[in-house]
Write a structure and sequence with these properties.
The protein is an alpha+beta fold. The chain is 22% helix and 44% strand. Strands 2-1-6-5-4-3 form a 6-stranded mixed sheet, covered by helices on one side. The chain is globular. The N and C termini lie far apart (36 Å).
């Protein structure tokens, strides 16, 4: 088993997103995880709903930059906060740029990796 730190989740998310790797992104979420896809939106739960939300972000054909700001670890859980910026192209062909602060909770898995159980990309604004 390789022990990895919870902050690695941000690096892996950025790498998979920028590669357009939906399967890689999905591998970062527990099967019953919760994602808040937009500011003020109701949380979505589970693999299918999270996949659909991430497909929407990947459709922007953009690149994301994540900068970890805080990590608070408690045993097998960790609270992460990051600043992120996404630059892509909207459905109308016009440039899209978003930037926010995120708040996430990740849990250590038996193999030493960390997966999101709560992902709120707009959670620290």
């Amino acid at each position: 088993m390789v022990e990895r730190g919870p902050v690695e989740t941000h690096a892996l998310f950025q790498k998979a997103f920028n590669a357009g790797d939906l399967q890689g992104l999905m591998g970062l979420y527990e099967s019953d995880a919760v994602l808040i896809p937009q500011p003020g939106a109701e949380p979505v739960r589970g693999t299918q709903a999270i996949r659909a939300a991430l497909e929407g972000f990947l459709a922007l054909n953009g690149k994301v930059e994540l900068q970890t700001k805080h990590v608070v670890r408690y045993g097998d859980l960790a609270l992460l906060r990051a600043a992120w910026r996404l630059k892509g192209t909207g459905p109308d062909g016009k440039p899209v740029e978003m930037a926010h602060g995120s708040a996430e909770v990740v849990r250590r898995q038996p193999d030493g990796s960390w997966c999101y159980i709560i992902d709120h990309p707009f959670g620290s604004d």
